[in-house]
Write a structure and sequence with these properties.
Layout (H helix, E strand, L loop, with lengths): L1 H19 L7 E5 L14 H7 L7 E3 L5 E3 L2 E6 L5 E6 L13 H11 L10 H4 L2 E8 L2 E6 L6 H4 L8 H6 L2 H4 L9 E7 L3 E6 L12 E6 L3 H9 L5 E3 L7 H4 L6 E15 L9 H9 L3 H8 L27 H10 L12 E2 L2 E2 L1 E7 L6 H14 L3 E7 L1 H10 L5 E6 L5 H5 L16 H11 L4 H18 L2 E13 L3 E2 L14 E2 L5
Parallel strand pairs: 1-10, 1-11, 15-16, 15-17
Antiparallel strand pairs: 2-3, 4-5, 5-7, 6-7, 8-9, 9-10, 11-18, 12-17, 12-18, 13-14, 19-20
Helix pairs in contact: 10-12, 16-17
Length: about 525
């Protein structure tokens, strides 16, 4: 009898263990690292918010999975000979979640709301395109008039989600922050602040009903907690995990998946060219040759990633530009050519009697393994005679120092991308508040102005490639990498992450066919 009870107990334990490993069922669940602050497209500022919003709203022009632009609520568009009037031909038969029709008035209202001084929205699209006025040609044709030619106007349309005029003009603004209505693939069911956002498929979506019926987005701050929920069947997609946390996912018996995607965020070491010898491009090139990025990838990122070749992201990067090669001897030769010598034999180079001793400030938790990478960089710099002190800073302190332009001569930073050559190159324009390099190159500046007024794709490519080569030659950055975005997926999830960090639900499929 005891033996029988023992066997029953063993079977019960096995059954309970199996329950803990049971495949994920029920609503598709995405675990975020932070909470969204708004669901009003005109007040959104964070990538998390844009990721959620793109599943409830549609723009005129979308950014596709390969980061090229394509038609969404606008079937086609063209610009006139003045380059200041853009005509958009709108998709017919589209309705908002509340039944309002999408038409030319929707476009006019959306852009006018962006510049409502009383509302004070945070969206900057209308300023970026130098909006003059919106002209309704007929019910499904609009003309966007700009104050000057803006070649990048289609790029800025990506975050210009269309709104239903009647609903948004009659609903209190505070209520709109949590009760969005769009034309997108999903409708909001409810938002419980600090707990979850629930969505259901929009059966009337103009592209067809999405494959996944119900979706829940939940904020879970700790990466270890997100991984634990994935392991126990509480999540289908978890974001913001690091390679060293992947072992639990890869080694699981439940078929969990670990996926990394080369993102658009360019991680670099900013060089303040107004600081002593850092004004010499030979010194800046030496710093680039001094680091063995392949070793950093192997030791810090477990083999994920490669060194940044150009400041511009694919598909607009100059294919002929090669990443800096690890060459400490060349680095030493360039430093010697710039007049630096180790006069007293202490291993630190001097210029004009002063040791090459600089500080490197890094946000302690903003970028993936930023502090660890900074320590590797400092060690490589010391190997070629440059003494570097790494100073970790809280993100708020780093931002304050960036705002006051008091960051150290070397600073660890990253810029996101709109996957457009002009906007990618624009992070080095002298008047950008976040660019502390103090690098000014007349040829670069003149070509940047010319690029902004050029609409022909071949000519834009030619100008862009020239500018990319200038940046490579002058090296106001130590070029590091495009930060990878790492995700954990349940066994039933079929999805390839995008380079822009966004999660677009219609591109996800479930192996069991249920959502």
């Amino acid at each position: 009898m005891k033996r029988a009870l023992l066997c029953v107990g063993c079977l019960l334990l096995v059954a309970l263990a199996a329950c803990g490993r049971e495949a994920k069922k029920g609503p598709f669940t995405v675990l975020l690292s932070v909470e969204a602050n708004t669901l009003d497209p005109h007040f959104a500022t964070a990538t998390i918010e844009w990721s959620i919003l793109m599943n409830m709203f549609d723009p005129l022009i979308e950014r596709r999975a390969d980061m090229t632009l394509g038609p969404a609520l606008a079937e086609r568009w063209e610009v006139d000979e003045t380059k200041k009037v853009w005509t958009f031909h709108l998709r017919k038969g589209v309705k908002f979640h509340n039944g309002e029709p999408f038409d030319a008035e929707s476009v006019r209202y959306t852009f006018e709301r962006m510049r409502d001084k009383k509302l004070k929205p945070r969206i900057t699209v209308y300023r970026r395109i130098f909006l003059d006025r919106i002209e309704k040609v007929d019910s499904h044709t609009v003309k966007i008039h700009t104050k000057r030619p803006v070649a990048t106007l289609p790029v800025w349309m990506v975050n210009a989600f269309m709104l239903p005029p009647e609903y948004y003009s009659s609903t209190p603004p505070k209520e709109l922050l949590k009760k969005p209505v769009g034309t997108g693939p999903y409708r909001l069911v409810r938002w419980i602040k600090d707990d979850r956002i629930e969505m259901k498929a929009n059966e009337g979506w103009w592209r067809g009903r999405p494959a996944i019926e119900k979706v829940i987005w939940r904020p879970v701050a700790e990466a270890s907690a997100r991984i634990a929920e994935l392991e126990t069947g509480g999540a289908d997609v978890i974001m913001n995990i690091s390679p060293d946390q992947s072992k639990a996912i890869i080694n699981s018996e439940e078929g969990l998946q670990f996926k990394g995607a080369r993102g658009g965020r360019r991680i670099y070491l900013g060089i303040r060219t107004d600081h002593a010898v850092l004004g010499d491009p030979r010194v800046r090139r030496a710093l680039n040759h001094a680091i063995d990025f392949e070793a950093i990838v192997k030791n810090v990122f477990l083999g994920h990633g490669s060194r940044m070749r150009s400041i511009v992201n694919a598909p607009n990067a100059d294919p002929d530009i090669e990443a800096y090669a690890y060459d400490p001897q060349k680095a030493k030769a360039l430093l010697a050519e710039a007049g630096l010598r180790d006069e007293n034999g202490d291993g630190v180079l001097e210029a004009n009697g002063k040791p090459f001793d600089v500080k490197l400030e890094v946000p302690s938790s903003r970028y993936l393994k930023g502090k660890e990478m900074a320590e590797f960089l400092a060690a490589y710099f010391r190997d070629v005679g440059v003494h570097v002190e790494v100073i970790p800073l809280e993100w708020s302190v780093f931002l304050a120092r960036r705002r006051k332009k008091t960051l150290a001569p070397l600073y660890f930073h990253g810029f996101s991308s709109a996957f457009n050559e002009e906007l990618d190159l624009g992070v080095l324009r002298p008047n950008l508040f976040a660019n502390l390099t103090a690098w000014r190159n007349r040829d670069f500046i003149q070509n940047y102005k010319k690029l902004g007024q050029t609409f022909d794709p071949k000519e834009r490519r030619r100008i862009s490639y020239r500018m990319q080569r200038i940046v490579r030659e002058e090296s106001p950055w130590v070029f590091l990498w495009n930060q990878y975005d790492f995700f954990g997926l349940s066994a039933r999830t079929q999805w390839t992450p995008r380079p822009d960090e966004r999660i677009y639900l219609p591109t996800i499929r479930l192996k069991d066919g249920k959502g």
